[in-house]
Amino acid sequence: MAPLAPHEKIFVDSEFAEDENHGEIGCEECHGGDSSEPDWKKAHEGVVKDPTYPDASEVCGSCHEEIAENYQTSLHISLAPKKKMIDMMANPDKSVCAKVDAAREGNCKECHSSCGQCHISRPEAAEGGLMEGHLFQKRPPMDQVCTVCHSSRVGNEFLGKNKGIPPDIHKEKYFKCTKCHKADEMHGDGKDYANRYEVENGPKCLDCHNEIYDAKSENPKNHWIHKDQVSCRVCHSQPYLNCSSCHIGLGTKSSSIDFKIGLNPLKSESRPESFVTVRHIPVDKDTFKSYVKNGLTNFDKLPNWKLATPHNIRRQTAQNKTCNACHGNKDLFLLKKDVERKYRKANKNVIVPKDLIPKKRIDE
Amino acid sequence: MKVIKFAVSPVLIFAVFLFLSFDSQKAWSAEQESYCFTCHTSAKDLISITREIQAKKGAPPKAAGGG
């Protein structure tokens, strides 16, 4: 995505005044400042760049009551799972924990969004700038909003930017993010979720592909055999990015394109599969080292190989070409040897014991 | 009954007048009398102001991409 010139970032299309809803509201009603002051410096005194963050209840909420009501529970705003996970891993010593929290607030919390940073401007985490001259975008444009933050993993996977790996089949069908990730999911529903996979109105493959178990469908037998055993992505994802060793301020040490099947760490009624795709996330014991020593003494409480939903789906993949492309193929599974010794305890619920790898089929 | 009708009509007319004038006031505010709108819809003005700000600030910071 091409960056915007400084003046483009704040340019307002005069057509905005013709917006029958938002165009009739004076600029100062949302942004503050003094619209009757000709001197731009004085006029900008008290101006709020994004009046929808951290609280959108006054500006958006005066009309969009229902959405604003749940605003604080939208994961894009609250980033609540991030805090919960860091708290869980943090040193219980109160003074150390406070420093970890300050580090999280100062670094991780920058990557939030807001009503404005999806529907009016590009997200601040990606340098911001008004989209379409402040004309409200009912559906946030994928290339200017979603994939500027969700870039190195989801964005690159979906768009086919990882060398040698084709894009997601849905991208080739001209899907945008909002085709699957609906407003209800994005806006929050008032519930406080522990992670994004719990969100009740998140997309599920079966929402569209509900015919795969029908006798008349193309491949019902294989879908029935693997039902509740493996996630859709185990068969239909291609290799994806894994990052390691993130240190605040220093970025990730290394990353690699890989594909790993692990045990499902978030098994539940809605996610009953035993095997899922897992991704190494860029968090390690020393993530907050520059702020405080021994910040994450309970690091082992959570895995750093996590349930992942790679966005590079294809009907046919290397592992689903034949039964034995997967069955008995140890390279596909996250084994003990794949996990650094110091992180084995943290990943004990994800690592696949050798005896659980499906046996090679002799009848193939 | 007639007395009530005579009393209600002027009140209704006045209410409609108030509603219309309030509505047009808002549009007028956004488009005509707002220096914000005048300046922010002029690329020329914005270029000169952002150059002025940039000259004071120096180079803009770089953003980092996430997952």
Keywords for this entry:
heterodimer; A: 364 residues; alpha+beta; 3-stranded antiparallel beta sheet; two-stranded antiparallel sheet; 15 helices; 25% helix; globular; B: 67 residues; mainly alpha; 3 helices; 76% helix; rod-shaped
Number of helices of chain B: 3
Oligomer: heterodimer
Radius of gyration over C-alpha positions of chain B, nearest whole angstrom: 25 Å
Tell me the major beta sheet of chain A: 3 strands, antiparallel
Q: How confident overall, as mean pLDDT of chain B?
A: 70
Estimate percent helicity of chain A: 25-40%
Please write the string of helix (H) and strand (E) elements of chain A: HHHHHHHHHHHHHHHEEEEE
Mean pLDDT of chain A: 94
Kindly, what is the distance between the CA atoms of the first and last residues of chain A, rounded to a whole number of angstroms?
Answer: 47 Å
Write the layout of secondary structure elements.
The complex is a heterodimer of chains A (364) and B (67).
Chain A: H1 6-9, H2 27-31, H3 40-43, H4 65-70, H5 75-78, H6 80-89, H7 94-106, H8 116-119, H9 142-149, H10 151-159, H11 169-172, H12 177-180, H13 183-187, H14 220-226, H15 232-236, E1 240-247, E2 251-258, E3 261-263, E4 275-280, E5 305-307
Antiparallel strand pairs in A: 1-2, 3-4, 4-5
Helix pairs in contact in A: 9-10
Chain B: H1 2-31, H2 35-40, H3 43-57
